[in-house]
Write a structure and sequence with these properties.
about 130 residues; alpha+beta; two-stranded antiparallel sheet; two-stranded antiparallel ribbon; 6 strands; HNH nuclease domain-containing protein; Homing_endonuclease_His-Me; His-Me_finger_sf; endonuclease activity
Length: about 130
Amino acid sequence: MNRPQIKAAEAIARPAAYTGMEVPMPHKYTDYRGRRASGAVAPEIRFWEKVEFADDCWEWLAATNPYGYGAFSYRGRGQAAHRVAWMLVNGPIPEGLCVLHKCDNPPCENPKHLFLGTKKDNIQDMIR
């Protein structure tokens, strides 16, 4: 897929504009493209560039697992993309909690569609 290049500030501003939530800016030593002095792109930029903001559900456009959930390498390990979306907007996920979808759409990364729950909550949500 041929995706247009977007600047770092735009990639960060999009989720903030759609959700009305504060989205942390990338590392302060990045250029306008989100690249650090090492040439690496800030993870916040890499993440939001892989999201399509066209609809109420923000679809993940990159790698997915067999169940349709986005997959993203964050902080040195593979993570479910919706968990990364939660962490980028809301901060760390408390131990013992899961990030669940209100919309029941696995590739959705819209923080407004995500909420925290226990494993029991997740199982009950899957049954409904």
